[in-house]
Inositol polyphosphate-related phosphatase domain-containing protein (Brassica oleracea var. oleracea), 329 residues
Amino acid sequence: MGNTNSLCGRKGFYNKETLLSSVGNNSSHDGIRTIEAVKSCSFSRKSDLCIRIITWNMNGKVSYEDLVQLVGKDRKFDLLVVGVQEAPKTNVAQLLQTASSPTHVLLGKAKLQSIQLLLFGPKNSQPLVKELKAESQSVGGCGGLIGRKKGAVAIRINYDDIKIVFISCHLSADANKVDQRNEELRRISNSLISKDKRTHDLIVWLGDLNYRIQDVSNRPARSLIQNHLQSVLVRKDQLLQEAERGEIFKGYNEGTLGFKPTYKYNVGSSNYDTSHKVRVPAWTDRILYKIQDTKNIQTTLYSYDSIDQVNGSDHKPVKADLCLKWINS
């Protein structure tokens, strides 16, 4: 990848020292609070509800082996939430149900062409579901062969008296479409959250949000990642920049971006894009959450990471393990 220090002075190129100084020690943002995941233990039985959340842009393909890796063998969570984008026409819900059995069953699903949201709960957990509703909001896109329309799908659920809304979305691509992505988020939020007069204890956004690394070119970005210094690039993340400006996700939380950028990979490998486009790696795939009832509900983020062993797409899946506890129970 070469020495990044030799790239000083050229527009769009930064040396390591310049990028390091731009990050600083600030781990929180006006719009997004960065949460360090507690990795010392897995799901706690002292929690009232534990949720595994996964987002993955499938690039129009799927294999059962990838879905088995996606779900994992550790099934101590209560709810399993899987949001997929660019899903193939294959019945992904049925394949995931097989992969997650016998511990979990499909409770609900929402779909907008290739954008899907699937919600699984423990076997025999249906009596705990007091409300479940699926919705969608399109924000553009022509569909194409696999229906790659941009927009979002949502599932509202009252599970064991905890009211949650999950929103899985796929926003416009390209590094220069920041304002368009911001507007799409506002439109989705207005349609799926703001117009709803019901209160929610927890709101979770997941999906291919498509925000990129701002003003950093390919060679220095890849060199930093290769040397396990990808944290240097976090300050250049468009999503965090827009949150700092107060444009999006005010009051939301996200785990630390300690994993490598999840896009764009050569399909079938863990090597970054070598096509003629040679995309700059970016954290396009994200999971954010917001507790509305902070006086009564406490949350612990147990993990926030990519699933690097899944190679079937040009994106790596991202997962978060989140546990909730009633403070005054």
